[in-house]
Amino acid sequence: MLGIANSGVEARKLTDSDMMLDWMARLDDETSLNEVFIPGTHDSGALYSFLGVSGKCQSYTIGEQLQMGVRFFDIRLQLRGSELAVVHSFVDQRLTFDEVLDEIKVFLTQNPSEFIIISIKEDADAQEPELPFEKAVEDTLSEHLGSLLSTDKNVPSSVGEARGKAHIVSRYGGASIGIPASAGWADSTSFELGELFVQDYYAIDTVEAKMHDINSAFSVAEKKNHALVLNFTSCYLSDGFPPAHAPTTAKLINPLLCEILSNGEAAPCIFVSDFVTPELVRQILNKNFD
Fold first, then answer.
1. CA–CA separation, 112 and 33 (whole Å)
2. CATH number of the domain that 158 lies in?
3. pTM
4. How many domains does the chain have?
5. How far apart, in whole angstroms, are the C-alpha atoms of residue 142 and residue 133?
6. How far, in Å, CA of 284 to CA of 4, rounded?
7. For residue 131, what is the DSSP state?
8. What's the burial of 265, exposed, middle or buried (CB within 10 Å: 0-12/13-18/19+)?
9. N or C: which end of the chain has fewer CB within 10 A?
């Protein structure tokens, strides 16, 4: 597996003002999850790229994302023997699932007012597997999170019910826990899937077209007909160079998102972003307390 550092969109050192460790403490227990603006990251552990061409989607570690207020994590895995490695397609991200879960356990233990949603997908074929992927995932979740793991197959009915737990969106076959999201997940489009609405146009022709897709998901979210709306703001230009180069579009889309949020034109949903920044997270969180 290849993992070569790529400058992409550079991180800066987080300051005290960037720390949003317990922002959910200000939410009423009775609040439905579809009424909350939740910062999230696409390919949350993807800090490395192949030859600077594709693979890198974030500049901050999982731990840093937690500190700045991110509460939805898109984790892509490959099973190697009995260990789960974080990957983005064929690009190794030098991180294990164990390490991700240990970060989350420490964070939830120290910040019980918060809840976390983890989307899990098998992103590369297993190498010499010693057990099925789904068993490896669920055993690892149970071992590392223990009582902090929610195995429910439904979206929590309220913030109060969700607090203090890691909730799973199961984008892998054979899942016995979590919100089911494997069968029926469509490719580069918008769709309904059980309690979820997902906007995930990722191969785009223009940034303007992607912004239209994002705004369309806001319109869906305003109707409150779904327990959660996953609004992927991540994408790449299908005819761009390098191909699948997320930094190019993130540099354009993230400032536009900040502008939309500051103008009050967004609706409550999970923002699943490439190259999340403290500034973007703060803009998203501020919408909960206007």
1. 17
2. 3.20.20.190
3. 0.96
4. 1
5. 14
6. 31
7. S
8. exposed
9. C
